[in-house]
Amino acid sequence: MSEPSDALSALLHESRRFSPPPELAQRANAQPGIYAEANADPVAWWEEQARRLSWATPWDRALEWDLPFAKWFVGGKLNVAVNCVDRHVDAGLGERVAFHWEGEPGDTRTITYADLQKMVCRAANALTELGVTAGETVAIYMPMIPETVVAMLACARLGAPHTVVFGGFSADALRGRILDCDARTVITADGGYRRGAPSALKPAVDVAVADCPGVRRVLVVRRTGQDVGWNDARDVWWHDVVDRQADTHTAEMFDSEHPLYIMYTSGTTAKPKGILHTSGGYLTHVSATHRLIFDVKPESDVFWTAADIGWVTGHSYIVYGPLANATTSVMYEGTPDTPGRDRWWQIVERYKVNILYTAPTTIRTFMKWGPELIEGHDLSSLRLLGSVGEPINPEAWIWYRHHIGGDRCPIVDTWWQTETGGILITPLPGITATKPGAAMVPFPGISAAVVGEDGTPVKPGNGGYLVITQPWPGMLRGIWGDPERYRETYWSRFEGCYFAGDGAKLDEDGDIWLLGRVDDVMNVSGHRISTTEVEHALVGHPSVAEAAVVGANDATTGQAIVAFVTVKGGVADDPASGERLVVDLRDHVAREIGPIAKPRQILLTPELPKTRSGKIMRRLLRDVADNRELGDVTTLLDPTVVNAIKDRMTTGG
Ligand code: WT7
């Protein structure tokens, strides 16, 4: 495991404090007694949260814990989609807006809870007609359009676990996921809009499913109107099959532990892991965290998680959490710079957004673009800001607070992971005096610790590893098809504890600062990418002999991918051919994994630094990539190798 970088440790010299605004504190959903109440009996406290949902059959036991396998609300039955939609309509909230949706070209749709109910029922009827049954996985590869939410909820309604694959992933990545979870149906669109132009999705599906014999049907939403290839035996248009269905549907109730979705995420190996989430515990966790951390008042607030539904942030805080709480959300299809770099601020102004949740990388991009873009817009509706995805540097935190939050909005820096289902470490906006750069404290009902190498908690003022010491309702239930890997990855490093893979420091007050990953997982713009996965893609190229990939510090994206590559037969002396190969390798990685995995920099080098036992010394390569003084090189087989690489780096080789 590597040490958190010096740059991140520098965060800890931050001493500013920001107390909750008194009016917000007074009316906050979470009041100070909440911690004591949850600590007294965490499981009972979670039961109280679960009772806010609608259950067809109550649970017998709140928690069955057979380490590392947890079951929550055992014996209880519910339907997740009914909880997110129908019960609000039944409660007379049918006219409330569920989504103010905005397409990138400027088209808009307003979808009320009553509309959403009809849309989900029609889609559920259509999926049934296409043969989807409870327990059968459906893959979703979509742009950010309302049909994506509808598709997820229709799956949930039928008890068919969905696996949403981010639209930026390649056909190969999509195929791998479809095969791993044995999806029989794929829901996609012709394309979506990105950066002012239609960006196709259907061609990638065609390539992916050509090698997926299990896929029966591909259901296609028409969004951009671009030409699509068509297989009559397999492909059906959404408007042909969904629109003619009845807009009512009788939902079956499922076990609390019925699978809700699988989300693939990068681990330390080349093969992404299918993280399994189930129903009752997950919905309890995401709805409680959404209500208490974002202080959502569903009757008046407009909430905006500016993330893609293809990531867990979108699942938990665009779809399941907000809808379970009958919230009005904003959903935006495109990029923040189209048509202009003030698109987000137009959206905040137009819909009077009250709560905005986004990632540090985006905040740093806005910093780079300059505050002038914001100043012309009325952002006075904002009352609370959230951050997620990577450690936020104090400078970005303060900028966010000042330029976007008008120095009046509390910031909640929320730490969690695909695996945790929902937020675990966070301030509460009406209670916590926040520190710029710190995620602060465990959410009520969550037990966390910072431990040293030996697994014992560190004393305040010290660094170590973040662990979660008790099961929680939204926790992953396993890795799809691989229980051993689940145990090994998360529960073997520290006995009896969930090891998140993050370094952390406990400050003198006992508050938690997250310091980044300590394994071979990179965090690029809040997206998790494994070094091994990129290495695997690179060595798959016919010219590549060996590849080592590291995450380098990057002022905007947090980390950036830097690859060191040795070439079969050696690097040609002719620089033009080297440059051509680098371009070719970057494209190759984009094809294999997706554009998000393209290395920022590829260095062709005659050799990689290795230990005497033949292990590549990534730590040294990280130093090279960050232009740091080299650490200990005494175990190197050939210490001159690193200097040769350093020379190439500085000469731009
Ligand atoms: C990794 C999980 C949580 C949804 C988006 C990412 C890093 C996440 C924070 C934060 C510091 C953070 C961690 C974690 N991370 N939030 N507030 N402060 N680091 O989900 O792709 O599963 O990535 O993101 O390193 O392990 P993910």
TrEMBL record:
Signal peptide extent: none
SUPFAM superfamilies the UniProt entry points to: Acetyl-CoA synthetase-like (SSF56801)
Binding site residues for CoA: R194, R195, G196, A197, T313, S525
The EC number(s) this enzyme carries: 6.2.1.1
Catalytic activity: acetate + ATP + CoA = acetyl-CoA + AMP + diphosphate
Keyword hit for Glycoprotein: no
GO molecular function, one term: acetate-CoA ligase activity
Keywords assigned by UniProt, alphabetized: Acetylation, ATP-binding, Ligase, Magnesium, Metal-binding, Nucleotide-binding
The AMP-dependent synthetase/ligase domain, residue ranges: 93-480
Binding positions for ATP per the UniProt entry: G389, E390, P391, D413, T414, W415, W416, Q417, T418, D502, R517, R528
Protein purpose: Catalyzes the conversion of acetate into acetyl-CoA (AcCoA), an essential intermediate at the junction of anabolic and catabolic pathways. AcsA undergoes a two-step reaction. In the first half reaction, AcsA combines acetate with ATP to form acetyl-adenylate (AcAMP) intermediate. In the second half reaction, it can then transfer the acetyl group from AcAMP to the sulfhydryl group of CoA, forming the product AcCoA.
Protein name (record): Acetyl-coenzyme A synthetase
Biological classification of the source: Bacteria, Bacillati, Actinomycetota, Acidimicrobiia, Acidimicrobiales
